[in-house]
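PT: before anyone asks, these are the final sequences, not the draft ones from last week. 621 residues across everything. Please model them as a single complex and drop the result in this thread when it's through.
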Amino acid sequence: MENLIEVKNLKKYFSTPRGELHAVDNVSLNIEKGKTIGIVGESGCGKSTLGKTLMRLHNATSGQVLYNGVDIANMPMKEFKKDYRSNIQMIFQDPYSSLDPRMNVLQLIEEPIKVNMKNLSKIEIKEKAQEMMELVGLAKRLENSYPHELDGGRRQRIGIARALSLNPDFIVCDEPVSALDVSIQAQILNLLQNLQAERGLTYMFITHDMSVVKHISDDIAVMYLGQVIEKCPANEIFKHTIHPYSQALLSAIPIPNVHVKKERMILRGELTSPINPKKCCRFVARCPYATEKCHNEEPELRELKTNHSVACHYAEKFM
Amino acid sequence: MAKIHTPAMEKIEKRNAKRKKPVKSTPTTESWKRFKRNPTALLGLFVVCILILVAIFAPLIAPFDYQKQDYASMMQAPSMKHLFGTDQFGRDIFSRVIFGTRYSLVIALFCTIAAFFSGGLLGIIAGYFGGIADTIIMRIMDVFQSIPMIMMAMCIVAVLGNGIPQLVAAVMFASMPTMARSNRAAILRVRGSDYIESSEAIGVGQIRMIIKHMIPNAVGVMIIYFVGFLAVSIMMMSAMSYIGVGLSAPTPEWGLILNDGKAYLTSAPYMMLFPAMMIMITCFAFNLMGDGLRDAFDPRLK
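LR: through. Structure below.
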């Protein structure tokens, strides 16, 4: 399959009073058409920033994002808005705050259509919005409701309808279910999967929830402090995880069986600051296997097996 | 399919038509509902409404001409004829206070509008554009703010002279920094919210963003500041008139009436009591209303 999105050495630094914050540092990813890539990592590891940089909500510091071979990260904003905005869309994390409280459901869903398809008449816009509501499973009677009257699941459906109404082929899902109840999480995940099957969508699914990512992803990239440290097919990571950090992440998934005692790998130490990081392995402060070499050299992402890359000096040892 | 009509059905239809339609719950009606539930806010609104009515119908309410001097009845204590007593020229203080409502409310409104369109707009610009514009505007406002409000107003009146436009200008300049600050905060709060980012993601342009998203969401907070500022303006105006840099006699402005009475504080305290009470009641009412509006528009802001 061809790659829809190719991220090449993408960097996003924020300047803070204490120095450069390396939110996304040298990330390279390929996302195949029609597939889902899961981005996993703890809070503050830069996974949302990565998504927002792909969306051009942030401008990249350096590096490229190729969409069907065209670099969208460095083109003028005007051109991006005109030609690519509708192709790349985003579903936001918090459906409670990401919808304008002063607009009703229909207005919210009409908005992207109104803004991007200027040649449509009012009635056509309304029809299209209603079609979208049906597609994401929002009852017609909710048209005039305001977000504050709806539950989280319905609000997230509005968010999905807004993203989908522009017929995108790539959607960045920024923790779309983390703010929802578990029962509703499943509904939304199923909706996202059905939509993907129907419309051949490509997802970048950002989450910190390993069980969600297992359910929905084809490939997984684990991020730590702005860098991708392990990248492989989804089933591979649950069977043969290599990087010590990924191992620790996986050992944190609870097993719903009281008789199985699982050995948990508990990380000690503090998260290293992402501001002006030193040239060393980012994980060194918390890694139980860290050696002198890890303190002095930054490991590169190396392909150890087909489709399985790890950034660790001693990756072979953990295989 | 034709509709069937029976007498019973018509009866029901009639009854249904009579019933009020359920009120749709929009953010605005929600705010109004919260406001209605708040007794102190309603009291504030009620008093403000009465004051407005008093200002409009002042000639009908006031028993005497506020300028007419009556040397037969000077410095009289409150009585049935002169509810608030008379001053050293025999003018009816009740009538003067009633007419004073006009001056206080109207000038305060002008002051607040002027402050809003100068300071408020600067604050909105600073908040929206951020960066250098923000720094420049807010540092200038800081300089303004470092001069005491009354001092500032006095300087302006000293340069431009007495009069209503000068007074408005003085209050405007003195309250610009606070107005800028609060409006900037209101815009910043909206600007940093997720729905602005999500609208950006679907390609909403700058102008639509301001008109459709930022203003509707910030306007509630701005109204709160606006109402609060009416109270501040009335206070400032009265204070300036009292120290003699505001309006000039014989205007029946509350601060001026206070000024008239200050010489007789020990012998005729009622001359100061009633205008002072009016100032207090008015400011109190506006503040109650402002607090009520704050709770109504944004229950989380408390």
